[in-house]
Automatic annotation (TrEMBL):
It comes from Streptomyces phaeoluteigriseus. This is Uncharacterized protein. Residues 1-61 are annotated as: Disordered. Residues 1-16 have a biased composition (Low complexity). Residues 32-45 have a biased composition (Basic and acidic residues). It comes from the Bacteria.
């Protein structure tokens, strides 16, 4: 197993791990630009496309397992022999029972060493994915830094990284580290794993940081509100502006995530959370994000029946009035107009789609002749 250590040969293709590490070192606390894409193997993969997913989804991963079984049956086989072995088979990016079973059939330490080598030195995304699947099945806490780094390429490797951390000691801390540094689908995978673990140590982060404003947050916003026991933490809004903003994001996502996740209509504490948010957000200074969030919620309360917001008719009218009063304050109006002047996408979208119905002072030219 001597090939489990060392570095790549001079002039050799860049490993995906090194690619992720180099980008991460440029901004250690931030997600990778464009999720690290394009990967170093991008051109090769476009020229040499592998097979698509089988129609029988239960058979996905069987071909990978067969390659692994054949490899591990040879005691002298080195991890590097798998570096280019998966181009002709479909490699699933999520946890897979066939691959996990192949990992369990072989010696655990050998499987670990193979997975580590493929992740650390693999220059092909298929081989690296298989390596990550092996560590997700039999890896140890020692593998956390390795998995975190490759997990930064989260659109491809987020699902297996999240699954690996679900079953490891120290997995919650590892997930929280990764969650701060991934967006898009990667954030969905990691936040869903945190919700599944339901560890009390993760609740402060879930209450304040889980939603980053991406449309895909709708898949987990309601689950976050439920698992983090948002309705029990509303008193914290008195002194926690970060939480007020995050509650606004949660409510925004839950107002428009039908078919994705839990909506306000089905969240049992919608009325109480909306009332708490409406009370506190108006006490803060205006920002473009706050204006946008309140306007979206006011629109929802204007155009949808009360049950769609999980509240009574009286609550709906009071909430709508509270939000509109904040939006029409002079300083909030000026903030919105400043955003529109700089062509902020959120203000532009409000001006084109929401403000006409709400008749907000920030957008008089666009809303003055709109129908109620």
């Amino acid at each position: 197993m001597s090939e489990t250590t060392g570095t790549g040969l001079p002039g050799s293709p860049t490993s995906l791990f090194d690619h992720a590490l180099q980008l991460h070192q440029l901004a250690p606390g931030e997600p990778l630009p464009r999720d690290g894409e394009p990967y170093p193997d991008d051109e090769l993969h476009r020229r040499r496309r592998g097979p698509t997913a089988p129609e029988d989804r239960h058979s996905a991963g069987k071909d990978v397992a067969l390659v692994l079984d054949t490899h591990f049956a040879r005691a002298s086989a080195l991890p590097s022999e798998l570096a280019d072995a998966f181009h002709d088979v479909y490699v699933p990016i999520h946890q897979n029972g066939h691959i996990a079973a192949a990992a369990e059939r072989a010696g655990r330490e050998r499987v670990r060493q193979t997975g580590r080598w493929l992740i650390r030195y693999g220059t092909d995304r298929c081989a690296v994915t298989v390596g990550l699947a092996l560590l997700a099945a039999v890896g140890s806490a020692d593998d956390i830094p390795l998995i975190q780094t490759i997990g930064l390429l989260s659109n491809r490797f987020g699902p297996l990284a999240a699954h690996a951390f679900e079953r490891q000691t120290g997995g919650v801390e590892a997930l929280l580290w990764l969650a701060e540094r991934v967006t898009g689908w990667g954030r969905v995978y990691v936040v869903e794993a945190l919700c599944k673990l339901d560890d009390p140590t993760a609740r402060p982060w879930l209450l304040r940081r889980a939603c980053d404003g991406d449309f895909l947050n709708g898949y987990f916003a309601g689950n976050v509100a439920t698992v983090a026991k948002l309705h029990e933490a509303l008193a914290d809004l008195d002194t926690d502006s970060e939480m007020v903003d995050h509650v606004g994001r949660l409510l925004h996502q839950m107002s428009d995530c039908g078919g994705m996740g839990l909506t306000l209509a089905h969240y049992p504490h919608s009325g109480a959370v909306l009332e708490a948010h409406a009370r506190h957000v108006g006490l803060l200074s205006p920002t473009i994000e706050r204006y946008f969030t309140i306007a979206v919620l006011a629109q929802h309360l204007t155009t949808e029946p009360p049950e769609a917001a999980g509240c009574t008719a009286a609550q709906q009218e009071a909430l709508r009035a509270t939000y509109l009063e904040v939006l029409d304050r002079e300083e909030w109006t000026q903030a919105a107009r400043a955003g529109l002047a700089t062509d902020d996408n959120r203000m532009r979208w409000l001006a084109d789609h929401r403000a006409p119905q709400l008749r907000l002072r920030a957008f008089p030219d666009r809303g003055s002749d709109a129908e109620e």
